[in-house]
TrEMBL record:
Pfam families: Amidase_3. The keyword Hydrolase applies. One of its GO terms (molecular function) is N-acetylmuramoyl-L-alanine amidase activity. It comes from Balnearium lithotrophicum. Keywords: Hydrolase. SUPFAM superfamilies: Zn-dependent exopeptidases. It is an enzyme of class 3 (hydrolase). One of its GO terms (biological process) is peptidoglycan catabolic process. Residues 218-372 form the MurNAc-LAA domain. SMART domains: Ami_3. This is N-acetylmuramoyl-L-alanine amidase. Its EC number is 3.5.1.28. One of its GO terms (cellular component) is outer membrane-bounded periplasmic space. The keyword Hydrolase applies.
């Protein structure tokens, strides 16, 4: 074989190799080829079956009014797919192939809802799947009037898990004191005191060192139809080490009024996301300006402060403050809610007190008695009306 023939053979081999690679690429091209769903009262699950894996970073979502759009890079679709859903949450799903490597998916919601998007790897003969879970609105149930006064209290130990809260020393990577541990300890003591009452059910947003998103905490109160929501914290003010004492916060009238004015506008534009979930803001979620919620939160705060002063040194109780910041747990729709700062880790005396079990018990007794007094007032109202 001369040099010219050898060159032809090499060129032909290279051409065949390129054709083979192109054919393999066409075969390997990821496409969305079907849409499935399942639905019950608690969730509607939409499943997009794919011929290959799609990294999460290539899936972008955008909420426009009541339409949730997914833009998927690196995947096409066999054709335009459309499925109408028999679901109380979702109207229909449409898959639009833009080109061979790009697809858009439109999920039409029946109302503003929260949702979760994730991928499931192929296994046991099942393909890779993009999954969209759609859940009912923030308030999934309506609370009925309790004929028998069995009251529900939700205790919320602040922070937890990856979120230590305030620490000492301040900004230390290896703190000796963490707010999350103090709040859980006080909450356990309050629960123990309230659990002695057969007419009170106590629910805690966490019972161990785990991270619970703020919206999830508020949702727990809503699902339990809580008569009182009490969030327990400890404060930190490095620039004001002289600040000390226990403070009870409630949502300010300004926040309630502002929520009422902006509910509809915000609902169209904003959604809140945490590590695993997104909530579309709805008028129901953000419109917390009802007179009842605000008035009852004030009564709950007053009862707790009164009983804290009876059990803790009067000088150590700062009284009631209006929370000016937009704190989610203070704005649980229809649920009277307060936030208690049990002391300042940046104040030397408070720091020592908060580490003492005896002082934690004094705070817990004041909180528990205040809650009992507030619930008693509800029972009196219920008896008068009944």
């Amino acid at each position: 074989m001369n040099r010219r023939e050898l060159l032809k053979v090499l060129l032909l081999g290279s051409a065949l190799e390129l054709l083979t690679e192109a054919a393999s690429a066409r075969i390997r091209r990821t496409v969305i080829y079907s849409v499935r769903y399942s639905s019950n009262g608690e969730r509607t699950r939409i499943v997009l079956d794919c011929s290959g894996e799609i990294p999460k970073r290539r899936i972008r979502e955008k909420l426009k009014e009541r339409e949730l759009w997914l833009e998927i890079e690196g995947a096409g679709a066999v054709r335009r797919l459309k499925k109408k859903l028999k679901s109380p949450l979702v109207r229909e799903v449409t898959v639009y192939p833009i080109n061979r490597r790009r697809t858009k998916v439109k999920i039409t919601l029946k109302n503003y809802h929260r949702f979760k998007i994730f991928g499931l790897k192929s296994c046991r003969g099942k393909p890779f799947r993009i999954v969209v879970d759609v859940f009912p609105e923030f308030i999934p149930i309506s609370c009925k009037v309790r004929r028998v006064p069995k009251r529900v209290v939700v205790l919320d130990p602040g922070h937890g898990g990856k979120d230590p809260g305030a620490v000492w020393p301040v900004r230390s990577k290896h703190p000796t004191i963490e707010e999350k541990r103090i709040t859980l300890s006080i909450a356990f003591k309050v629960r123990k005191l309230l659990s002695k009452r057969s007419d009170i059910k106590v629910v805690m947003t966490r019972t161990r060192d785990v991270y619970v998103p703020l919206l999830k905490r508020a949702e727990i109160a809503a699902k339990e139809c809580a008569d009182a929501f009490v969030s327990i914290h400890a404060d930190s003010m490095p620039n004001y080490p002289q600040w000390s004492g226990v403070t009870v916060f409630k949502a300010s009238p300004h926040l309630f009024a502002k929520a009422e004015r902006t509910a509809m506008a915000v609902a169209k534009k904003i959604r809140i996301c945490n590590d695993v979930m997104c909530w579309s803001i709805t008028p129901t979620l953000i419109n917390l300006s009802t007179t009842v919620t605000f008035a009852e939160s004030s009564k709950l705060a007053e009862a707790i402060v009164r009983d804290l002063k009876a059990r803790v040194n009067d000088d150590l109780v700062n009284g009631i403050r209006d929370m000016q910041r937009n704190i989610v747990v203070l704005k649980t729709p229809g649920r009277p809610a307060v936030l208690i700062e049990s002391g300042f880790l940046t104040n030397p005396l408070d720091r020592r007190r908060l580490l003492r079990s005896s002082y934690q018990w004094e705070i817990a007794k004041g909180i528990a008695k205040g809650i009992e007094d507030y619930l008693y007032s509800l029972n009196n109202v219920a008896l008068i009306e009944g």
